[in-house]
User: Fold these one by one.
Assistant:
Number 1:
Amino acid sequence: MDSLLLFLGIWAASYAAHLALYFGQGVILTAINRRHPERRIQPKRRGEDRARVEILASVKSLVVTSGCLAGGIFLPMQGITLWPPLELTWISGIGMFALTLLLYDTWFYWGHRLMHVRALYKHHFWHHRSVAPTVWSNYSDTLIDAFAMQSFYLVMPLILPIPPVVLVAARLWDHVNGQIGHSGFEYFADRTTRFPSPMVCVTFHDQHHEHFNYNFANYFSLWDRICGTLDPDYDRKVGEFEQIRQTR
Ligand SMILES: [Zn+2]
Ligand SMILES: [Zn+2]
């Protein structure tokens, strides 16, 4: 009983933190975007018209996302792991954080490609109703879609000795990156985000929403480049935004 209450308490705190970050960052990014219309990635579309439905869907799906993180914190506390979490040091912290991001990108790429398979697409279609994504689109998912992607934060602490604070930091990084990545405005295009660099900018996931069959990964373009699913226009478009940035 005490354990159940503890789990529900962690879940509630996780949900409240997710909501605060979603709305807080969303409002800030919206204010910044308003001042930079020239940075809009799809100038002919107004994704903002869907803000209300996207926010409603997000408030629901964040219950799942925050629950996965809560489970990933709670289960190691109960000793339900292959290995106890590493003691937190600079080396274990930075090393496990980097490993978590790399593994999540791999999980996301292959899980995301699976969700595009005909039999599973019914769970992912909702996310693609946002053709021009906005700051509110990141969590606009069905509950099953949210679980497919976010269960990473539930499963990984069971098989890897990730210190809980590193798990939270990785989820926080994913949140910040994901909401910026859906913002529809480009601020990060430069030579570090196009070939031969594996890093990406906002245009990367925006093109996944616009063109559908490309750019499945999350943090890096590596898997898409290796598997031939990189949008053929990605590197050129990054170069174009780079020019805009240099002329201002
Ligand atoms: Zn997709
Ligand atoms: Zn998306």
Note: The two ends are 60 Å apart (CA to CA).
Number 2:
Amino acid sequence: MKRTFSLFLTLALVFVLTACGSAPGQGSTPAPEENTPASTTPETPPESQPEDTPSTDGETPTETDDSGKKILIAYFSATNNTEGIANHLNDILDADLYEIVPEQPYTSDDLNYNDSSSRSSQEMDDPSARPAISGSVDNMEQYDVIFLGYPIWWGEAPRIINTFLESYDLSGKTIAPFCTSASSPLGSSATMLQELTEDVTWLEGQRFSGGASVSDVQSWVDGLDLNG
Ligand SMILES: Cc1cc2nc3c(=O)[nH]c(=O)nc-3n(C[C@H](O)[C@H](O)[C@H](O)COP(=O)(O)O)c2cc1C
């Protein structure tokens, strides 16, 4: 665990340094958050390769918070950083947890943003891409609040989050977005997702580093109005 965390920190640092560096006379090397084509991306992958993908937790009983709201934590995580934050949220809220699992799992080659022909590069280059999700949320209508987590890919949410949002009638619900990234802020990723929904109340989102603590996550949750 400690080694994995150290590896993450090292790779994140390499990512930041690589993203910020540029060869003199060649202009800036675009960082992924600028959502530029992958052919111009930094040379070092930002993260460790995906570990085993945990399966969807469909068995957790429905929980409510003190306000009586039924809460779902839905997240996509290719290399488990966002999953860690989702688990912290689950400790805090005792909500239902749902992992957005791609029908076709992402391999390390798929995640190579230095390769313009990699799956992630191609999907992020195509705003209409909608990677298929394996399984679905049981009785989505029962939830009042959805915490929606994802990694930042090229400054945006991965397209599979679009697939998720377009798979359900979410009208009347409240969504609180959260993300992990090497360095990019939540930025416009959440506002772009908002455009995919109607009659949904979007709360102020939060970006976390992969190693964020439960208390970091608690601070964000404390500032949210879940009754909104
Ligand atoms: C295809 C791809 C694109 C990425 N783009 C960015 C980016 O634009 N900005 C950034 O800070 N990190 C970027 N990252 C790093 C991830 O956001 C970061 O490692 C995140 O914590 C991964 O979350 P996960 O382990 O839940 O998949 C990118 C990673 C991948 C694989």
Note: Residues 28 and 161 are 30 Å apart (CA to CA).
